[in-house]
Amino acid sequence: MGLMSRIGLVTQEPALLSLSIRDNIAYGRDVTSLQVEDATKTAHAHTFISSLEKGYDTQVGRAGLSLAEEQKIRLSVARVVLSNPCILLLDEVTGGLDFEAERSVQEALDLLMVGRSTIIIGRRLSSIKNADFYSCYGGRMPARTPNETSTFQIEKDSTLQESSSPKFTKSPSLQQASNLHTARSPDSNYNSYGSQKKIKNS
């Protein structure tokens, strides 16, 4: 199995073929109708599909029913669920959605990301706030205090010059854990695993 077959891609403007919703989701895979429906439930698409007159047999694409961008993205997520990739690439998925649509799609993406290595490309901080590491070009990385729950801001630093390589930093949660570890003073009574050593009386 090649690397490309292990990568699942979801973009802001997914392409739909002039086929039924069922065939679009299952395209190129030998799956049952039940597996397709299970995938749409994970993608939060089952409800809107079931509300259509022809349900999963509804024709979409250029010759069929015109779907909203949010609905197209959900079908794309369902398609990736079926492929069960090891790696996810999310390219500006929620960039063109309003707040309510973004929240719904993000919930589906959160389910999709469980147990998978994920690379997220996005301008909206809400789409990357749970990432373990951030990377950006020519700017100062986001930071927040442990008690801060509001969305953080990336500040432009005029003293930094844009380079051809991204700058990496740990997410606030990992930074907090790292700071706690490094701030702890060495203690001869503790071993490397943090448990207290037993001291023998001579």
TrEMBL record:
GO molecular function annotation: ATP binding; ATP hydrolysis activity; ATPase-coupled transmembrane transporter activity
Cellular component GO terms, alphabetical: plasma membrane
Top-rank taxon, per record: Eukaryota
Entry-linked InterPro entries: ABC_transporter-like_ATP-bd, P-loop_NTPase, Type_1_exporter
Pfam families in alphabetical order: ABC_tran
Biased composition (Polar residues): 160-195
The protein's name: ABC transporter domain-containing protein
Record-annotated ABC transporter domain positions: 5-94
Chain residue ranges for the region called Disordered: 155-202
